[in-house]
Amino acid sequence: MTTATAAGTATGTAAEAETAAAWEPPAWPERAFAVSDPVAPRSPEGLPLAPQRIVHAGANVEARFAYLPHEAFNAHIDETIREALGRLAAAGSAPYRPAAGTGLSERGCVEGSTELGADELLATLPGPGVGLVLACDAVLAAGSVLGIRVRVVLGEPGAVAEDRTSTLYADTASGAVLRPSELWRTEAEAEIWGGLVEAARREAGSLSLAEIADPSEAQRDELRDAIGSAEVADDGSLVVRVPEGFSAAELSGLEPSDRVVALPPGASAPLLSEAGASLIAAAASGDYTGPALPAPGERHVDCTLVPCVAVTYDDGPSALTPALLDALAERRAAATFFMLGSAAAAFPDVVSRAAAEGHEIGNHTWNHPALPKLRAAKVREQIDTTSATLTGITGRPVTMFRPPYGEYTGATLRAARLPAILWSVDTNDWKGPPPEELVATAVGTPVPGDIVLMHDIHAGTVEAAPAIIDGLHDRGFTLVTVSQLHGGAAPLGVGVGAGPDATRG
């Protein structure tokens, strides 16, 4: 009996062991959302970003941003800055207007700046009291898509009045520009809510498989904050930063934590809007393959926000002009050349290069006569022959002229039939000043909106060009063409620049 019982017990134990070996515990259901790292900022080096910077001590502003080869994005960033400046003015700051300073060569997005503490950012303000800081980070460059994160902080160290972060995605192929909230289908909110709650409770160690309740209206607001902060990772995943205070009944009693969850590309498809799906597909092809930035003279720039100066060169082209073009190209700066028709005919390759590199080509007559001394027919001949020569070389229409010596009359303008562009800063480089004097005048005199007069037929002017361009850049200026200075088109009538000593003829 004892033996049988022992044998029976031994046999039963073996059967139980065999059953236990084949048993598998229930597995977690597959989930779309998974805990993730946040999207990390990336270096702006090598990306098609035109770096910009605004510093204004009076209004207490420090703003770093960038323009892209994407006009809708550029319009958005300009509007973002204007709205922020409006809020700063409402807080009692001095009015903002473009201003020059010193030590402003470093511009654009600084990697990781949007993740600094608000007080760290406010510590960069140029003055005490309430101010505005704008920082940016590149967060995506894949396929034809660029993603830029922008952070706006208003206040002063220790007293933050506003802290907003937003990300914008620009598809350079389609021209579309999307905010994160526009990536999702509105009707997918309940499913997104469930995914976020499930990811959060698993991360917190919950073993619950209880069905997740639909969100309340207050929780829907939290959800919209979350999906409005979503960012696209390099692999096409949608990464969501769950906002502070995110709550649900299913998370009650669980250890709170900073939560970041990601939705892989395949899993996100049913939740995406049509525009979101298109953008994700456009970003799915690996490294950035979109367009490079246009030439400096053809880029977007808003000279009512950014301090701009138009550097102009008369009487060329000459054998010296290629060295000047080299200096401009190396420093990504634009200029306007008012060329003599006779000189252009002698150096057509230089004319072609200047135009191809995005510089503006204006008419300076055929051989530099004093136009008021000529009859209307001769004025037209000087202008029309030169315009025909320049257009024949560049393939582009000529939209402005500069009267020799700055001399004109109403009859001159009627005969020329082009806007006349004068200047507001005369460097007198034709007098051959010492290099340091020429640089001091060309760099130290301009204010935003000025037109600077020089000549690319003088060796001293061309030799001083690198120092002049660098000096203007250090003062915070963007070097633009005359048309860029005036919003993209030649001014009507007579253009002279904004400086206090403008030559008006």
From TrEMBL:
Keywords: Hydrolase, Metal-binding. Gene3D superfamilies: Glycoside hydrolase/deacetylase. Residues 1-22 are annotated as: Disordered. Residues 307-480 form the NodB homology domain. This is Polysaccharide deacetylase family protein.
